[in-house]
Structure formats: structure tokens, C-alpha cells
Amino acid sequence: MKTQLVVVPLSEPKNRACDSLGVERERVLLVEDSDDDAFLFERAVRQSGFKVDVTWAATGMKAKDLLNDGPAPSLIVLDCNMHGIGGLELLQYLRSNPLYARTPIVMLSGTHVDSDVEMAYAYGGNSFVAKPDDYHEYMDRVIMLLAYWLGMNTTSLPNPFADIPFRDEGLRPPTTWREAAALAGAR
Question: Using one digit for the tens of pLDDT, what is the confidence trace for 116-139?
Fold first, then answer.
């Protein structure tokens, strides 16, 4: 199967007044190697009515490239078991980067192996959600996941590295705490 990076445009928001008021859409990065699961996730987002733009990366490497080049997401959803760079390895990479230290990261996995769950939390994952086999239950879980992480959850502190202008200057984000501190000191 050929992997690809696809930006999934969603339908118009249910509340167009929010757009005219300048309310920004939330950004979700979905890292999922299954085309079918990515389609179901996007469908659940559309049905939820949330103002969300979903960007889909079919591999961990594509997700790294996208995170280095694109706007920071409000939520990252990772499949645990993928070819190449898996979800757990990508989770470790993200948590080592100060820009994503406080970004909610949810593992959404088709397997529920205790060791995967333990490692996901040990590596800094915020939640581990098992993908159910039932279509309606899957849709409900994704909608609940969005409702909690984008609606009810409150980030306690702003990310101190969020205003580093690397994106505007064509630079890559820092990949270590040392690089982030150097960038913050250079401002």
C-alpha cells in the first residue's frame, strides 16, 4: 500500500456565525495508517459539528514532516501500531519537543495490549482509547474524544515556546529542550 499525506477538508461548519466572528477552527492531526479508519474518523468529526480541521498523516514520518512545516495542532491522535515509525515512537519524539509538551496526545488503537497502554502513558500520552469493532460505537468514541479534548479539557498553562516565530521564518521547530531554550534565549 502506497502511503500518502492527505489534508482532509471538512464540510462547512454548522455555525457560520462563528466564522464571521473570527473564531478559529481547532486543528487535529490524525496519524493513522488505515485508510478506512481515517475515513471513519473524518466522518465522526463531520457528524460531531465541532469546528475542526483534520490533517491526516498515513505514516509517522509524514507526521514528523507535517509537524515541522505546518501549524501546530490543538490535538494529536496517534494509531499505536503502524509500519515504520509507530505511534509509541512518535509519541516519544513529540514529548521530547517543547512545542508539543502540552499538546494533548491520544492513542487510538485497534489493539488493547496492556504493555502498549502502559508505554503510552509512560511516554507522556494523555489518553489511550481502544477502537471498537462496532461502527456506531467507534463514531461515538471519536465524538466523545473530541468533546473532551477540544471542549471540556482546559490547558493549565500556555506553552512558553508557542510564540517562537520559526514557522514564519521557514525554520524547523526545536527537537530538543536545549534547542528550544537556545531559540527562546535568542528572541
Answer: 999 999 999 999 999 988 999 999
Residue in the structure block whose three cell numbers are 531554550: 181
Judge whether 97 and 73 are in contact, CB under 8 Å: no
CB distance 99 to 162 below 8 Å:
yes
Strand partners, 76: 29, 105
**pLDDT tens figures, 93-104:** 999 988 888 899
Cell of 155: 490547558
Count of C-beta atoms within a 10 Å radius of residue 163: 9
What residues does 75 pair with on adjacent strands? 28
For residues 48, 76, 72 and 94, what is the CA-based torsion angle, rounded to 10 degrees? Answer: 170
- Say if residues 43 and 83 touch (Cβ distance below 8 Å): no
Q: For residue 123, what are the contacts with CB-CB under 8 A and spacing of at least 6?
A: 88, 91, 92, 95
For 55-74, how does the pLDDT look when each residue is reduced to its tens digit (9 = 90+)?
Answer: 999 999 999 988 888 778 99
Q: Which residue has the cell 501546530?
A: 72
